[in-house]
Each structure stands twice: as C-alpha cells, then as structure tokens.
Specification:
binds adenosine-5'-triphosphate; 10 helices; about 375 residues; single chain; alpha/beta; cytoplasm; DNA-binding_RecF; ATP-binding; about 45% helix; Rossmann fold; binds magnesium ion; P-loop_NTPase; Glutathione S-transferase Yfyf (Class Pi), Chain A, domain 2; RecF/RecN/SMC_N
C-alpha cells in the first residue's frame, strides 16, 4: 500500500502541513530538528496509535494546543481510504473513516500499515524486555486490530488484580486472613486475555523467525545466525532459557494456555500477595534474540546489534507483505547515517519490494543513489519539493 495525501494539524512542530505523496521512494532531507521525523512518525502513528519515539501521546500534540489531527489517504490495490485521527492529550483518540465518524476508534487501526526502522530500534536488541514485547504487540495490532482491545483489557485487568493483591498483602501483614475469592475471578480474567495475547505472539514468532534469520543473513552478508525464541514463566525452558520447540507449538492453543496460566498463578499466589504484583502472564514475557547461539543482548557488537534490529524490521515488513497484497509503507528514519556504505547498499536493494519507502536523512549524500526518488527539503517546518 501507499499513502498519497498526508495532512497534519497541530501535530508535533507543525501548525499545518499538507503533503502530496507518491508511491516509490520519497526522502525528507534537512538539518537536525527541522521536522523530518515528525512527518513519518505521523504516518506510522495512524496504523497503531503508537509512536516509535514516545510512550505517551502528549508529546505528539503541538505544544500549547489542545489536540492534533492527522489525516492520510491509504491506497491499497486501487482502493482509497481516508483515515483521520484526532489526538487529544490525555483523552481517547477520535477517528473518522472516509469522513464519517467511527463508533470505535480501533476500527481504523491497521488501515495505514507501516514498518518503521529508526535509531531507537537499537533498544530492541540492547534494551529491556518491554521494548521487545512492544515490538511484537505493535505488529500484532497491525495484523489483527482486534488484539488492541484485548491488550487494553489485559492492562485493565492487571491494574485491578494488582490493587487486589496489594489489599490482600496489607490484610495479611495485619495478621488477618484476606478474602481471596475475588482474586480467583480476576485470575480467570487475566488468564483469558493473557492466553489470547500469548498465543498470538507465539504464532507471530513462528512467522517472524525464518524471515528474521534470512534478513540477518542478507544484511550481514552471511555473518552469524539470528534466532528468535520466546521466554515465559509458563513454558518449560531449554538450556538457553527459551521455550523448547515442542512447548512452543503446543502453546498456540488458547484454551490450554488459559489453564496453564491459571495453574501458574496458583503456584505463585503467595509470592504475588507478598509483592503486590502479578508475576505471570504476557506482561512478564520476553522475545529472546540470539546470534550464533549467544544472547544478542550483552554479546552482540554495536554493528551486529544494528543489523539485528534492522533484520527484525525487515522481517516485520515481510510478514505484513505476506498477509496483505500491497504490503506496508516502509519508513527508514535517519538510518543511513548509522550504516556503513556496504550495509547502506544492501539495505537499498532489500527495500526494492516496498510500494512506498519514506526516508529521512540529515545529509542527502548518506542516502544511496539507487534510492533517489522524490526529494523534499525540510527547513524549520517548511517542506518543499526539490
Ligand atoms: N509537541 C511538540 N510541540 C512543538 N514542537 C515539537 C513538539 N514535539 C517536537 N517538537 C519539535 O520538533 C522538532 C523535532 O522535529 P523532528 O524530530 O522531526 O526533527 P528531525 O528533522 O527529524 O531532526 P533530526 O535530524 O535531528 O532527527 C524539535 O525542534 C522539537 O522541539
Ligand atoms: Mg529525526
């Protein structure tokens, strides 16, 4: 797919921006801090309601204003859909599709599909499990928008259950025996939503795994074998601390997962009451990245970590392309400066399959000549076509 018309109102540094975009390669070039990333961030946000730079929406709204509007026309296989999103700081987003309000904002998720590769992605390899869980979950939202609902339901359950655990812990410390019947009910809720998320993640992992290995091989020119695993308290672990392959394939069964989550919670309940937090479930799991059998985190070099992060994004691109004829928009935010000339050229050949590629770069020369498409100069929020 590609995005043809993009308009921003009070989004980030932009008061008003209207841009006509074409399929193929488009590069936004300009000095630091001029507003390049803000443009591509808006495109990516439309699909997942999530930014690659910030966790909260407040920073997306232009400072001093109450709300932002992002509008884009998604073109997929000759079909046009106008997606409009109003982002109000601290409140739920409001959305319109083809100018008509939608009853659930979630209905617009996944219509504008994109994959962003950015310097922040180094966190996927070097950072905490949270970054990797988010990587999986954002991709799941694009593939199966309904899961965004399950995700927020799960977060709500976690908060409720956490509060109950704290109350029970306080009662226990006072010497009284807490009433645990309500907790049983919340265990079931947590297990139901948690099982759905876990099963979807493992299914996604199966799709990402071969693509990541292949992309890593291409990016690194055959140096090292990238392998993805899933780590969960629920699963039997092999010596590397990953789920064994048999475990993994058994665990795409939601009903079975749900039972195992309930059992696992029963086992750790005492500890949970002591600590006042939920200790099992997808919020504690991790995507394990290994390179040549060693954990990438802690072992991989800077360049290898970069290649790994890039491989994960290219694999996401492949998974989305397999799922949908047009494939997603590929966004490369400020990445060429970080790659050596050989890697740049390899990346340039690998992105050839994308219907639309949006690139940002501070230095025009960093972008390989083979990716010369439409070029915009961005200076103090003024975007001009060269
Ligand atoms: N909510 C906001 N309100 C107003 N201005 C904002 C907001 N968020 C970001 N900005 C401004 O936007 C500018 C950053 O824009 P952006 O990140 O797009 O720059 P860039 O061109 O990608 O730069 P670089 O080359 O350094 O990556 C900064 O000057 C920042 O102060
Ligand atoms: Mg930038």
């Amino acid at each position: 797919m590609y995005v043809s018309n993009l308009s921003l109102h009070d989004f980030r540094s932009y008061t008003e921006l209207v841009l006509a975009l074409d399929p193929g390669v488009t590069a936004f070039v300009g000095h630091n801090g001029q507003g390049k990333t803000n443009i591509v961030e808006a495109v990516a946000y439309l699909g997942t309601f999530s930014s690659h730079r910030v966790a909260s929406d407040a920073a997306l709204v232009r400072h001093g204003t109450g709300g932002a509007v992002v509008r884009a026309k998604a073109n997929r296989g000759g079909r046009e859909t106008l997606v409009e999103l109003e982002i109000v700081a601290g409140k739920a987003n409001r959305a319109r599709l083809n100018r008509a309000p939608v009853s659930r904002t979630r209905d617009v998720l996944g219509i504008v599909r994109s994959v962003v590769f950015a310097p922040e992605d180094l966190e996927l390899v070097k950072g905490d499990p949270q970054a990797r869980r988010r990587f999986l979950d954002d991709l799941l939202v694009l593939l199966t928008p309904r899961l965004a609902g399950v995700r927020s339901e799960y977060d709500k359950i976690l908060r409720q259950r956490g509060a109950l655990l704290k109350t029970a812990g306080a009662a226990r410390r006072r010497g009284s025996s807490p009433d645990l019947s309500t907790l049983d009910v919340w265990d079931r809720h947590l297990a139901a939503a948690g099982a759905e998320i876990t099963a979807a993640r493992i299914d996604l992992l199966h799709r990402l795994r071969p693509q990541t290995a292949q992309a890593y091989e291409q990016v690194s020119a055959g140096q090292g074998e990238a392998h993805l695993g899933y780590r969960s308290a629920l699963l039997g672990l092999d010596s590397e601390g990953e789920a064994t392959p048999e475990e993994e394939s058994a665990l795409t069964d939601v009903a079975q997962l749900e039972e195992r989550l309930v059992e696992a919670m029963a086992r750790v309940r005492d500890k949970e009451i002591d600590r006042g937090v939920s200790l099992v479930g997808p919020h504690r799991d991790d995507l394990v990245l290994t390179l040549g059998g060693l954990p990438a985190k802690g072992y991989a070099s800077h360049g290898e970590s970069w290649s790994y992060a890039l491989a994960l994004r290219l694999a996401s691109f492949d998974v989305l392309s397999d799922d949908d004829d047009g494939g997603p928009v590929l966004i490369l935010d400020d990445v060429f400066a970080e790659l050596d000339v050989r890697r740049r050229e390899r990346l340039a050949t690998m992105v050839g399959g994308a219907e639309q590629v949006l690139i940002t770069a501070a230095v025009a020369e960093d972008v390989p000549e083979s990716l010369r498409g439409t070029r915009f100069t961005v200076t103090k929020g003024e975007v001009t076509r060269e």
